[in-house]
Design a protein that fits this description.
This protein is an alpha/beta fold. The protein is built from seven helices and eleven strands. Bound molecules: ligand LP5 and manganese (II) ion.
């Protein structure tokens, strides 16, 4: 990865699914037309609507996406993939097929001369206690092993149930509860040694926030989801710019 020169592109929350072929098409065009000239592509979680195991890599959409990403890597763009709350089961098989590298959440990198903290964003939503309980449960390695040992149809059925429960419960949660908690944001900057820049997704509230944490000036960039249209963030030595995609 070339950290200082060139440019890095950031995307998250594409929620790619067979039922939304237009967004998959937009993503494949973005890889071929835009990402091909970038030094680095960072996918900060929820590339897929959900991921129930690497044994689904041969399904048509997954295959198209993996092939396009590995072509991009072959052509020289470094691809980094971070798990979201929907696709955290993407494992070694996915990483090998896409020729990407898996980024831990959080990840602290020096990018184009700026220390930059990268996260999916869900761990910042600490006021959403029900979600954080659910997250701890499904990140338990023993629970994941049990889930992955189930037949594919049973895994899909369980995810369908979890999705339905999640949609139902979100109706009763306030917008504030489903957003990041300011104390969690400050703690993330603090524990990483106050990098001046944080980039994350998850909340589907694209924005640039300026804040001061313990006397340090910081900025927090929130990526957009890809529901109505797509968007990427471009970072180079001159700064950060937002780019919508239609
Ligand atoms: O995803 P989004 O943005 O709509 O909502 C999230 C939170 N919801 C979730 C749940 C996922 O959408 C469900 C699909 C996960 C697929 C994973 C695949 C593999 C599973 C592997 C298991 C080992 O993340 C939502 C937040 C919202 O973001 C904003 O931050 O509020 O949180 C919830 O709504 C969670 C509920 O509060 C609790 C859900 C209980 C579901 C219990 C079902 C248990 C079955 C477990 C097996 C899958
Ligand atoms: Mn998410």
């Amino acid at each position: 990865m070339n950290d200082e020169r060139g440019c890095s592109l950031f995307i998250s929350d594409l929620h790619l699914a067979e039922e939304r072929p237009a967004m998959a098409g937009l993503f494949l065009r973005f890889l071929a037309d835009t990402a091909a000239s970038a030094t680095n592509l960072f996918i900060l979680g929820d590339l897929f609507e959900f991921w129930v195991g690497d044994d689904t890599l041969d399904e048509p959409l997954n295959r198209d996406v993996a092939d396009a990403l590995s072509r991009l890597a072959d052509a020289g763009t470094s691809i980094s993939f971070m798990h979201g709350n929907r696709d955290f089961l993407a494992a070694e098989g996915f990483v090998a097929a896409t020729r990407s590298r898996l980024l831990a959440d959080p990840a602290l990198l020096s990018l184009h001369g700026v220390r930059t903290l990268l996260m999916h964003g869900d761990t910042l939503c600490t006021d959403d206690h029900d979600y954080q309980r659910f997250r701890a449960h499904v990140h338990d390695p023993a629970i994941q092993r049990k889930f992955l040992a189930l037949p594919l149809a049973a895994r899909r059925q369980q995810v369908g149930q979890a999705r339905a429960r999640s949609e139902q419960q979100k109706q009763f949660k306030s917008a504030e509860i489903m957003d990041v908690a300011q104390a969690a944001v400050a703690a993330a900057f603090r524990s990483s040694g106050y990098p001046p820049r944080l980039i994350h997704g998850h909340t589907h509230r694209p924005a640039r926030h300026e804040l001061v944490v313990d006397g340090h000036r910081c900025e927090r960039w929130v990526l957009a989801d890809w529901y109505r249209e797509g968007e990427y963030l471009r970072v180079d030595a001159d700064g950060v710019t937002r780019h919508p995609l239609r």
